[in-house]
Amino acid sequence: MANYLIKRILMLVPLLLGITLITFTVIHLAPGEPVEMATAMSPKASAATRARLREFYGLDKPLHVQYGMWLSNLSRLDFGRSFAPDNRPVLDKIKERIPITISLNVIALILEFGLALPIGIMAAVHRDTLLDRAISVFVFVGFAVPTFWLALLCMYLFGVKLAWLPISGIHSLGSDQWSFFWRTADLARHLVLPISIATFGSLAGLSRYMRSTMIEVLSQDYITTARAKGVRERVIIYRHALKNALLPVITLLGFSLPALIGGSVIFETIFSIPGMGQLFYQGVMARDYPLVMGILVIGACLTLIGNLLADLCYAVADPRIRHGRG
Amino acid sequence: MSLARTVCLLLFLFLTACGQDAPWNKAQAQGGAQFVTGSIGEPSNLIPILASDSSSSDISGLVYNGLVRYDKNLKLEGDLAQSWEVSPDGLQITFHLRRGVKWHDGHDFTSRDVLYTYRVTVDPKTPTAYAEDFKQVQSAQAPDSYTFRVTYAKPFAPALASWGMPILPAHLLEGKDITKSPLSRNPVGTGPYIFKEWIPGQRVILEANPKYWEGAPHLSRYVYRIIPDNSTMYMELKAGGVDMMGLSPVQYQRQTTGKEFLARFNKYRYPASAYTYLGYNLRLPMFQDVRVRRAITCAINKEEIIQGVLLGMGQIAHGPYKPGTWAYKPKVDNDPAYDPVNAKALLQEAGYRMGAGGILEKDGKPLSFTIMTNQGNDQRLKCAQIIQMRLKKVGIDVKIRVMEWASFLTNFIDKGKFEVVLMGWTISQDPDLYDVWHSSKTGPKELNFIHYLNPELDRLIVEGRGTFDMAKRRDCYYQIQEILAKDQPYTFLYVPDALPVVTSRIKGIEPAPAGIMHNFIKWYVD
């Protein structure tokens, strides 16, 4: 086990290097440079200005030199400064946006698993009944309805017509002078709409997945045996079947880890949530290389760690795998 | 499903618990002299010479002052300069600075600040896009604390306006690296509003400067909310979350018309400082024939585009100036009117004959081209489609290609690899056209990317920027408009209207040629 773990962790290093090399190349292959984006179509920028800006950002050096510099800075955990006009450290920009994105995603993830798993089980147990069909329709509506459209309708209903909930942003104006309780309540009020809509939209995948693994497990011989022995249906479903049906879900949970720092651009834009999605999108559009690379590296690390954790959890949860590898 | 039920119950409890005594209800009722405006974009840097986005200049405009500014009729007036003189030869400008002006941190404003702003802008180490106008300066001196004098190598009319550049505080910046200065996120200026707070991704808050030399602004607090989606902003407006925003033509015409809405809000409408055009790549033989360009303009119904794309919220453009400004020629004789019959005749004259499939041909080659435009601008795409339909009727085959902005510029515009582009320019206050139209500006990344070369136009541009005599300048720009109308290197399409809406709580707004923001510090609430 320990050997396996060490091997897996060592494997991460070349993998990560490969990822950074590929992303670095790809982002530089995209047409346009940060300097150009900042000065394009501006009558006030001359060729000399551009050359000066390129030198300032180190863009005049050959690509492999730029990559080497970036890598050596990264090894000291220095992500560099953003190429945007604010020229701030990339880490600062990420730091101020990551808390809201992670909180949102964690809550949405808990809600998603909390709702999708029971829904999936229910659908599997009542397979091919009216309930099953109703659930299918419900989750697929959530999947199919465009988020931005649903968001606008809900904003109009709950924000403008009924005036129950705030429309956008994450804090009310002047909330910094309120007590901690009201500040938290205010934040929660702002998050009701985004989180509900995000969760509604993501129920389909997981619940359908749960339904199909559950159906598969329920048709196994040992379930039939349990039934033959006269075990109560509740016990069969929740003790015998569910345990086995949940195994693949662990992998899914592992895959969700990198998604925790990623945000949806459309979603954040609609609700004016200053999260990672917007930051990354703006970074790409402005060809802000250090920022884009910074976010990608963090995302890649989380993906690799997520995969590793999922494999480990799997081994812990499933004796077959644990013993198979010795 | 007990979990879902619990969640619903909690939510319900939560919503009802937050009844009347919740602070957000009180906050909304207060309102007061706080003014909230919405913006799609977030400012990037509040040191004005380091930023070129409109959000940054919205904020900088309230925090800083320049030496001069445009008044409500778009005439230059003194700002931090009380007065100025131009020497008879037009080479030297002497500014007499306002006395008693203080920076927000209490320091005196003096000519040292002006000198510093000039020096740091032209410093090769400063990554600014604004050095060009100041590079024309031969020497700059501050003979005493309240006098500032600049000398130019040759008379340069846009020079005066270039001193509208916000003046930076020398005592906080001199001798330091401006790119790492905390002022970029925490500016100190001389303007009517003092910077208070910037919450990244959410809002910037300014507070009225009680000691402002023109008198303290009436609205005590200015909140600049970042709301990246226009529809969301519109909902916020209706819910009272923002006091002002710019409307789209559809919102102006269809969604803001009810009696209830008009009682709560005032809508304004005036021409924006921008125009949209169709630009021809004049390196291509097809477009070198002026008859072809004129024919295309004749075949396009500009009025129809304005109705279809802007729902009537705009005016026809004949040239590069905004209607109603001093350089704008109201009646341009050479301007081709909408006339499809004439378009066909012109193409016939240019040697095109109707070929198979209803497409004109010359020497066996069909008259066919691609209009390129950038992604994310729905108006331009619609505009291209209407043009496509009109040109089809006279026998021209048009394809449309929409591209992401960065690759559009790099792969096509900069390399001259395009046929026709549909783009827009903002119209600067000074009518100088050197950067976009002079034949010396056709190099890579320069703005005369359609490669228009006309010695007569060059002469008039240079003459116009080389004199301070307004009558002479106007004469040059009138002639320029005639030449451009005759040559049609662009088909000038339209000048859209700016459509701001402001809550009726705010009084004292005076629409003028400069828009509505010119007297912002005089706005008040009842």
How many strand units of chain B? Answer: 25
Q: What share of the residues of chain B lie within helices?
A: 25-40%
Biggest sheet architecture of chain A: none
Strand percent estimate of chain B: 15-25%
SSE-based structural type of chain A: mainly alpha
Please provide a written account of the structure:
The complex is a heterodimer of chains A (326) and B (526). Helices cover 77% and strands 0% of the residues of chain A. By secondary structure, chain B is an alpha+beta fold. In chain B, a hairpin with a 5-residue loop joins β16 and β17. Chain B is globular, with a radius of gyration of 26 Å. The model of chain B has no long low-confidence stretch (mean pLDDT 89). The longest helix of chain B has 18 residues. At the A-B interface, α2, α3, α5, α7 and α8 of A face α1, α2, α5, β10 and α8 of B. Chain A: Keywords: Cell membrane, Membrane, Transmembrane, Transmembrane helix, Transport. Chain A: It holds the Pfam family BPD_transp_1_N.
What does the secondary structure layout of this molecule look like, with pairings?
The complex is a heterodimer of chains A (326) and B (526).
Chain A: H1 2-29, H2 34-39, H3 47-57, H4 63-75, H5 90-125, H6 130-144, H7 147-161, H8 180-218, H9 221-229, H10 233-245, H11 247-259, H12 265-270, H13 276-285, H14 289-317, H15 319-325
Helix pairs in contact in A: 1-14, 5-6, 5-8, 5-14, 6-8, 7-8, 8-10, 11-14, 13-14, 14-15
Chain B: H1 2-17, H2 23-30, E1 34-39, H3 54-63, E2 68-70, E3 76-78, E4 81-86, E5 92-97, H4 111-122, H5 131-135, E6 137-144, E7 147-152, H6 158-162, H7 170-173, E8 193-199, E9 203-208, E10 221-226, H8 230-239, E11 244-246, H9 249-255, H10 259-264, E12 265-267, E13 270-271, E14 274-280, H11 285-288, H12 290-299, H13 302-310, E15 314-316, H14 340-349, E16 353-354, E17 360-362, E18 365-366, E19 368-374, H15 378-393, E20 397-403, H16 405-413, E21 420-426, H17 434-437, H18 455-465, H19 470-487, E22 490-498, E23 500-503, E24 506-507, E25 524-525
Parallel strand pairs in B: 1-10, 19-20, 19-21
Antiparallel strand pairs in B: 2-3, 4-5, 5-7, 6-7, 8-9, 9-10, 11-23, 12-23, 13-22, 14-21, 14-22, 15-22, 16-17, 17-18, 24-25
